Structures are given as structure tokens and as C-alpha cells.
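A reminder from the course coordinator: this example appears on the midterm review sheet, so study it carefully.

Given structure:
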């Protein structure tokens, strides 16, 4: 049969229980894979029996089926048998209980070669929870612990032994507390530059112990100090680097109260920061696990600021009072300060303090507490020239447009603490680290310096006044978040981003596009479409009423049906039944309703249309020309504008019981509907409306509601 005659049978899309896949035989059977129809409704044992029968295997209970998952083979269980997909290649292999039994037997009583092979298999199979559960039942964990204590394995065998232990720990099949101090000391002793594989898995075991067993924290902390770990950040093996940083993070996260201060000092040390920046952060490619470890370390570093963030300025502290005093001196370059108290108070006012007689009170709110003062003090001492320039540039504007500098410094500090989640717990899955905070010392203070510069720049660009402070703060926060999302490598790159790419004009345009996109998405939501239909009906009724009111008010039209093409006044009666019209004697005044002698009954009107009436068809001969047909007669009328013509035609169309369809009517509907929709959706600003309404919950089992 030729390839062109082959018919590909697609699975029935309606039957979600059937999958077509292949199952390869065990290694000792040389046969092609079986093309199998997998029915997830069948018990797994029945499926295995079908496959073993196909390959002529009689002992089906000794076999299981594995599925490729994240680069590893995992046993399919009764609970996971529905996780297959069309086109997968599964593998028929030894059942987990049989595999565990064979490996354990070889470890206990096999020859040296068999033990080595068994350890290698263990390091791979232990990653599977089904195998692990069977191995634990055989008291395999106790055996592994005894082997580690004896310390007979070396080289690859030691690596496989520790890998098996580590995999069982990660799967939660070994309680971290099961490892006694002797084992932990032994594992710690395996950390050595001479064997990176053993070092990597040893570090991984210690990370699990520190994170999950507080009782063993001191044992690990005493055996593996931060000074000992530091050289391993310089390892050429990225796995060793990652596990080393993970252990540093774990030790800091779980540190006891008596050791917490020492670990915090280590985290803040320049030596550790430089090692991370030079050896890891600047690496060309960073894997997800390493990115997470960097994020955790970054979060721990930020959390060192938390205590200062929730601490008020101490009125009795000479250090705090000196920092406050230098803010004014550096701003106004007053080394020999002999000013009168009233003049000093004026200086504090110029700096935007709300309490010029006691500036320390401005730092009472927590957060950001004393951290805001320290950041501002850093700005004033380390970037004095830039600080002085910002202050004087601000004072050079009109009083109404001056930025309250003190309020800005405090608000910016609080904002960046919120953006960087200072004091928060590390997210278990986040990889959102910022390389620039590893690039230099006192990075948070330098970040504050760039952010306050950004606030000053944005305030000028927005031409803001005092009442606009929250708006400026909102824009600055968005600028900071957008720039951080690009993960700049340095603070200079961060400044270039907020200075150019995320300048106020660009943020304004981004907000506009975001709002348009959101409006477009929301407009497709079923709830919005239902609201639009309801409002369209209301708007149409409003337009109909407006058109009829226009006709009742009346207006001047040129009647081209008479010889002299006179200007006549047309007016609809209040009961909408009769159209009155007549000559205009005085062009400057509106004739009275009673003076309009000519009449046409609305019930006699048969058609109204734009253009001149012709027997061969109706075609417009003037932009403002329309005609009315009634009985066997016609009126050809010309309005003063196209808009007026649309109003007359719409009005008569409504009287004839039809919907107004002029271009002007469509524009009016669109305009009024837009206003109505905006008013009704005001409360949904910045919210994403679901495309489909949420399902209605089932009724309660009874209606005995509590009314207390």
C-alpha cells in the first residue's frame, strides 16, 4: 500500500477517555513498541495485563508502566493513569515493589559490583515516589543511614548513595529529623573542592535538613559556617554554586535568635555581595533554581531594613538629631549656623516639613520610620551637590508649584519598601531578583537617590502643584515598577530607563493604550454586551423624543414645491398628529402656531426621504434637500443644513413608526451610548471583567437562614 493510500484515524474528540500511544517493551525483549489504545476508565492492572500478554510475559504483577516526565521516567499509578496524552511513548518496566526489592537485596548481600550497580540504580529510581514508598517499607532508609555512618563508600558510589538519600528526602519519604547528628557531621565532612558531585548533593541534603528540621539547625550551623561556604560560590559547577547559596539562605531563614544577628551581618557583608555579583549574577545564563536562590537572598537582604522601617526617630538620639540638622545645613550650605530660630524654622518650611519647630515629628509614621531619615541623610551627605540643586530648583518655582521635599522623601522611601516587599516572606516560587542590587554597596540608599531624582523630574514634567502629589506618586511608582521589570544590571541602567523609556510622556501614552486595550477586552464581556443592549434601547428612546421635540418646536424650510420657492415655517402639533406650515412674513421673528394655515395630517404621510422626488427614482440633487409624500401629493423641502435635514427626516420616520436611520442619528446613538456606558462602568475602572459571567451557585440545602 502506498503512503498516499494510508488513512490516519483521528481519535474521537467526543471521547476524552481514549488515548492512542505507544508502549515500548522491557530491555530484555527485542520487539517494536506496541501501538496501544489507552482507556483511562480501565484499572491500571488490566492495562498492564493487556500489554504483558502482547509481549508474552506471564508474571504481569511484576511489571509497571513508566511515563516520561520532566526528563525523568515516572511510574504511572491508579491516581495518575489519566495523565497520559496522545502520541506519548510509555515504557513497560519492572514494577516499583520489585525494583525496590531487587536493589535492596543487592545492597545488603550482593557482590561489590552488584552493590555499585544497585547504588547507581537507586540514585535514579529514588526520584520516583512509587519506588520510594516501596523502598521505605523495606527499611531501606535505615540501611542507607548506616552506610553513611560507616563511611565505606567513596567516589561515585558515595555520590549515588547520597543522591538516593537526597531524592527520598525531597519526596518527603524521609523525615529530616531521621538523620542524627553523626550522619549530619559525616555529610558535612563530604563538602570538599575535590569532588564537586558529592559536594553538590551533600549541600542539598543539608538544605533540606535546615529547612525542615529546626532541631538540627545548630548541628549544621556549627559544622558548615558561612566562611566555609564562601569559596564554593566561586565553583565552576553551577549546581554547587546554587546549592551553596540555597544553604546560606536556609541558614539565615532558620537562624535561632542567638545566631540571627551574626547571620544578618554575614548577609550584609561586602565580601559575600561581591562574590555573588562577580561569580553568579554576571554569569551569561542563570537557571531558574539559581534565579530563585538569588531572589531569596535579595529578599533576606531587604528584610534587614525592616526593623528600621518600623522604628520611629528617637527624639533623644544624638545621631538622629545630627542627621536631621545636616539635612538643612547641606541644603542651604550653612556651615556656621548662627541663624535665629525663626529663620531656621523658615528653612525647615522650605524643605517641606510639616513640623518646622520639631522636624523629627515628620518621621513618626511607620513605615518608613527612621529609614526615611537615613536615606535622606545619605542623599544629603553622599550626593550633596545634586541634593542642593534639587532643593534650590524646587524653591525657584512658584510657591503653589513647589514640591514638598520632606513629604516626597518619606513617601518615596515608603513606596520603594512596598515595591521591594521589605519585611515580607520570600515567595517559594519567585525568580524575580534585581541584578543591580548586587552591583554595589549601600544599593538601597543609592536606589533611593535615583528614585527621589525621578520624583523631582516627574513633578516638573507634570507641572504639578500640591494637590497633585498623589498623582505624581502614582506615576513614579509605575515608572519604578516598569524599569525594575527589565532587570537592569546597574543603577545607571535603571536611571537611563526611567529617564528616557519610562519618562512621564511615555507612561501617559502607555496608560492610554492600556486603558484602550482594557476597554476593548471589557467590551467583549457578556455582562457588558447585555448592558449595552439595554442602554441602546434607552438611548434610542431619548433620541426619538429629541427628534419629535425638534419638530414640535418647528423651523424654517424652503418649499420648492411652490412657484417662488418661498421660505415657510413648518411645525408639528403637540399631539404629533398634524403638520402645520405657512409663509413667514417677518424673517426676524417666529410665526405663531395659529398663523400657520396649511395642514397635513401625519396619518396621510406615506414616505419621507432625502433628495428630490423623481418618477424614475429618488436621487439626491442637493445636500439639504428632502421630500414628503402624502396622499398623491409631495412637498420638496430644503433645510439650512445637513444636520437639520437629518433631524426632520428622523422625526417624520419616527412618526411613521420606523427607527431613525440617518447618519446623524447613528452618531448621536454612539455618542450618548458611550457616555452612558462610561458612567455605568465607572466602578470597574482598572478591573478585568470576565468574558463569561460566573456560574450561579446551587441553591442551599435549606432556607433556615440566621437573622441575628
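Designed residues:
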Amino acid at each position: 500500500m502506498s503512503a498516499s493510500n494510508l488513512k490516519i484515524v483521528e481519535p474521537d474528540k467526543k471521547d476524552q477517555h481514549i488515548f492512542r500511544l505507544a508502549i515500548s517493551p522491557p530491555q530484555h525483549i527485542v520487539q517494536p513498541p506496541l501501538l496501544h489504545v489507552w482507556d483511562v476508565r480501565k484499572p491500571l492492572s488490566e492495562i498492564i495485563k493487556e500489554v504483558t500478554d502482547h509481549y508474552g510475559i506471564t508474571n504481569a504483577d511484576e511489571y509497571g508502566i513508566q511515563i516520561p516526565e520532566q526528563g525523568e521516567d515516572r511510574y504511572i499509578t491508579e491516581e495518575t493513569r489519566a495523565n497520559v496524552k496522545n502520541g506519548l511513548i510509555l515504557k513497560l518496566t519492572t514494577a516499583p515493589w520489585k525494583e525496590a526489592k531487587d536493589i535492596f537485596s543487592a545492597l545488603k548481600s550482593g557482590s561489590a559490583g552488584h552493590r555499585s550497580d544497585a547504588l547507581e540504580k537507586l540514585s535514579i529510581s529514588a526520584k520516583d515516589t512509587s519506588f520510594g514508598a516501596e523502598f521505605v517499607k523495606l527499611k531501606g532508609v535505615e540501611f542507607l543511614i548506616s552506610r553513611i555512618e560507616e563511611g565505606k563508600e567513596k567516589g561515585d558510589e558515595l555520590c549515588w548513595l547520597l543522591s538516593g538519600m537526597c531524592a527520598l528526602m525531597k519526596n518527603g519519604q524521609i523525615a529530616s529529623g531521621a538523620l542524627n547528628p553523626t550522619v549530619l557531621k559525616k555529610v558535612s565532612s563530604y563538602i570538599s573542592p575535590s569532588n564537586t558531585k558529592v559536594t553538590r548533593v551533600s549541600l542539598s541534603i543539608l538544605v533540606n535538613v535546615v529547612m525542615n528540621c529546626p532541631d538540627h539547625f545548630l548541628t549544621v550551623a556549627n559544622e558548615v559556617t558561612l566562611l566555609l561556604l564562601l569559596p564554593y560560590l566561586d565553583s565552576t559547577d553551577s549546581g554547587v554554586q546554587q546549592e551553596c547559596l540555597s544553604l546560606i539562605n536556609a541558614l539565615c531563614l532558620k537562624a535561632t535568635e542567638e545566631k540571627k544577628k551574626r547571620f544578618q551581618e554575614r548577609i550584609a557583608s561586602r565580601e559575600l555581595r561581591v562574590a555573588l555579583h562577580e561569580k553568579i549574577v554576571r554569569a551569561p545564563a542563570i537557571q531558574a533554581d539559581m534565579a530563585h536562590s538569588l531572589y531569596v537572598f535579595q529578599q533576606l537582604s531587604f528584610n534587614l531594613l525592616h526593623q528600621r522601617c518600623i522604628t520611629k526617630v528617637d527624639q533623644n538620639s544624638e545621631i538622629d538629631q545630627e542627621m536631621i540638622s545636616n539635612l538643612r545645613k547641606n541644603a542651604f550650605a550653612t556651615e556656621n549656623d548662627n541663624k535665629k530660630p525663626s529663620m531656621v524654622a523658615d528653612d525647615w518650611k522650605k524643605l517641606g516639613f510639616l513640623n518646622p519647630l520639631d522636624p523629627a515629628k515628620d518621621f513618626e509614621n511607620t513605615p518608613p520610620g527612621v529609614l526615611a531619615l537615613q536615606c535622606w541623610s545619605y542623599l544629603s551627605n553622599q550626593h550633596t551637590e545634586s541634593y542642593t540643586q534639587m532643593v534650590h530648583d524646587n524653591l525657584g518655582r512658584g510657591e503653589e508649584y513647589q514640591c514638598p521635599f520632606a513629604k516626597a522623601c518619606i513617601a518615596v522611601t515608603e513606596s520603594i519598601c512596598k515595591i521591594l516587599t521589605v519585611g515580607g516572606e520570600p515567595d517559594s516560587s519567585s525568580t524575580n531578583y534585581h541584578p543591580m542590587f548586587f552591583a554595589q554597596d549601600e544599593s538601597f540608599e543609592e536606589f533611593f537617590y535615583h528614585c527621589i531624582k525621578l520624583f523631582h523630574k516627574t513633578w516638573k514634567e507634570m507641572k504639578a502643584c500640591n494637590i497633585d502629589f498623589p498623582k505624581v506618586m502614582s506615576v513614579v511608582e509605575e515608572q519604578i515598577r516598569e524599569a525594575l521589570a527589565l532587570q537592569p544590571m546597574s543603577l545607571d541602567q535603571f536611571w537611563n530607563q526611567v529617564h528616557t523609556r519610562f519618562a512621564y510622556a511615555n507612561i501617559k501614552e502607555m496608560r492610554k493604550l492600556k486603558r484602550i486595550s482594557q476597554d476593548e477586552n471589557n467590551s467583549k464581556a457578556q455582562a457588558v454586551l447585555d448592558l449595552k443592549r439595554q442602554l441602546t434601547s434607552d438611548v434610542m428612546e431619548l433620541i426619538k423624543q429629541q427628534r419629535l421635540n425638534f419638530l414640535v418646536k418647528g423651523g424654517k424650510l424652503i418649499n420648492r414645491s411652490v412657484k417662488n420657492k418661498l421660505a415657510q415655517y413648518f411645525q408639528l402639533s403637540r399631539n404629533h398628529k398634524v403638520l402645520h406650515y405657512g409663509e413667514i412674513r417677518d424673517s426676524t421673528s417666529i410665526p405663531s402656531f395659529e398663523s400657520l394655515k396649511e395642514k397635513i395630517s401625519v396619518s396621510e404621510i406615506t414616505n419621507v426621504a432625502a433628495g428630490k422626488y423623481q418618477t424614475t427614482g429618488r436621487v439626491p440633487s442637493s445636500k439639504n434637500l428632502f421630500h414628503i409624500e402624502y396622499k398623491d401629493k409631495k412637498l420638496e423641502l430644503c433645510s439650512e443644513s445637513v444636520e437639520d435635514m437629518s433631524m426632520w427626516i428622523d422625526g417624520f420616520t419616527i412618526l411613521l413608526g420606523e427607527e431613525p436611520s440617518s447618519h446623524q442619528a447613528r452618531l448621536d446613538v454612539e455618542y450618548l451610548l458611550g457616555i452612558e456606558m462610561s458612567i455605568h462602568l465607572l466602578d470597574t475602572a482598572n478591573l478585568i471583567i470576565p468574558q463569561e459571567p460566573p456560574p450561579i451557585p446551587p441553591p442551599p440545602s435549606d432556607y433556615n437562614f440566621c437573622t441575628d
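Confidence is low (pLDDT under 50) at residues 1-12, 615-620. The longest strand covers residues 18-24.
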